[in-house]
Design a protein that fits this description.
It is built from 18 helices and no strands. By secondary structure, the protein is mainly α. It has one domain: Growth Hormone, Chain: A (Up-down Bundle), CATH 1.20.1250.20. The longest helix is centred in the N-terminal third of the chain and has 33 residues. The radius of gyration is 20 Å and the shape is globular. The two termini are about 25 Å apart.
């Protein structure tokens, strides 16, 4: 399953196999652990137990995406001259997990004070998001150094399947823990167990065999002039970025699937746990399929196919007459998520291979950050004033624009391999 590329010498083949297994455990364990803190199902239910505000539900992904992208405005420049990226990645990963671990005791302590618990939750969530943002570009750079471009689909396909298997088990556990509403012990157990899985499975990443990197001649920077210069000089990448901006706006809508199912279709906490099981079980099947397709045909087709499935999910959510249809909604969302997740990261590294990677990651992040951060807040306001159906209509239209942008962006695989 992790056979080394034939062109590598024997030592590099051993390093490749070791690194591939370590990355699969880390990435798969991350997907499995974070399923117990899912932004699509578990966390919206948690916040809904504390408030009726749709705006605060929308704040969950808004904080996450702002935290992911804001630090990258300076991190790519900071780490571009690091000979090795692994020490940075592991140090920040420690803080990511600490913020999530603290959610369990805080829930037990403050659950009878909803306002205080909401404040504590959003503070911890902000800390987690910012820590993840500090690591995002660096982690991608590390993967680019140790896994060949035509094997990253295999990596994310296998790790997605592992994460899906762990997620199915976690979803069944969550169904049991949340069957009586989940507050406080059910949610505390979900947060604690999910954090423990994240802490254990990141350990192998600390031992990957990373070659010493050659720093670029010029440090990457994502200021306005640099963004314009890079996008003008690379119109294919610019079309891809425009598609990502539209998809970022469309991607705000799934955060409201759960609360819509609760408010209008009678979903219970147990139903939400079953939705999580559907999400993760679908990932088991689709992640390896997307990985196979990416390695053989390129990541562009994966991005395009994922966007189409996400758009279909929004249309089904809009038209669904009963709760049962939402199993299909979550399945379509789950089918899109792993492909979009790894293929976007991979395709950025292929548009800007090697030493160019931090600059391309930073420019992509800088362009999509406003949409990713503002879209959930705008969607929350729209849901509050016009209802969830209006959010799903807007999301479907924006998904269509994203599909058009991805369609017009050519496959960049030849750059990464050339």
């Amino acid at each position: 399953m992790v056979e080394a590329p034939a062109e590598l010498d024997e030592q590099n083949k051993r390093d490749y196999r070791f690194n591939m297994v370590a990355c699969i455990i880390d990435d798969g364990g991350y997907a499995g652990g974070i399923s117990l803190l899912s932004m699509t199902t578990i966390l919206p239910l948690f916040v809904r137990q504390l408030t009726d505000s749709a705006f605060l539900v929308g704040l969950i992904p808004a904080i996450y995406w702002a935290g992911i992208f804001l630090p990258q405005l300076f991190v790519a420049r900071l780490v571009s001259h690091f000979p090795r990226l692994r020490p940075w990645v592991m140090s920040i990963a420690f803080f990511e997990r600490i913020f999530l671990v603290l959610l369990a005791p805080l829930t037990l302590w403050l659950w009878q004070k909803p306002g205080a618990l909401l404040v504590a939750f959003f503070l911890m969530w902000t800390g987690y998001a910012l820590s993840t943002g500090l690591n995002f570009a660096t982690y991608l750079g590390l993967v680019a150094k140790i896994i060949p471009a035509n094997r990253r689909g295999l990596l994310y396909g296998l790790s997605g399947a592992l994460g899906g298997v762990l997620g199915v088990a976690g979803a069944k556990l969550a169904e049991y823990l949340l069957q009586d509403g989940g507050m406080p012990y059910g949610f505390a157990w979900c947060f604690g167990i999910g954090s423990a899985v994240l802490a254990v499975t990141v350990v192998p990443l600390g031992f990957v065999r990373e070659p010493v990197g050659k720093p670029p001649e010029e440090r990457p920077h994502a200021g306005p002039r640099q963004i314009v210069r890079l996008l003008r000089g690379d119109p294919a990448f610019a079309r891809f970025v425009w598609g990502c901006i539209a998809y970022a706006f469309a991607g705000a809508a799934p955060a409201f699937y759960t609360v819509h199912a609760i408010d209008h279709l009678g979903a219970t906490a147990a139903d939400v746990a079953r939705f999580t099981a559907v999400l993760t079980a679908t990932t088991v099947v689709t992640a390896p399929a997307w990985g196979w397709l990416a390695d053989r045909t390129g990541n562009r087709r994966v991005v395009l196919g994922s966007a189409i499935l996400a758009g279909m999910g929004l249309l089904v959510a809009l038209l669904a007459p009963s709760l049962g249809w939402f199993y299909l909604v979550f399945a379509l969302n789950a089918a899109a998520s792993p492909g979009m997740g790894f293929a976007v990261a991979n395709i950025i590294l292929e548009y800007g291979p090697g030493a160019k990677a931090p600059a391309y990651v930073a420019v992509h992040s800088s362009c999509t950050m406003p949409a990713s951060a503002l879209a959930p807040l705008l969607a929350g306001g729209l849901a509050q004033t016009a209802g969830y159906h209006a959010v799903f209509v807007a999301g479907a239209i924006l998904a269509g624009l994203a599909i058009l942008g991805y369609w017009r962006a050519p496959e960049p695989r030849e750059r990464a391999l050339g």
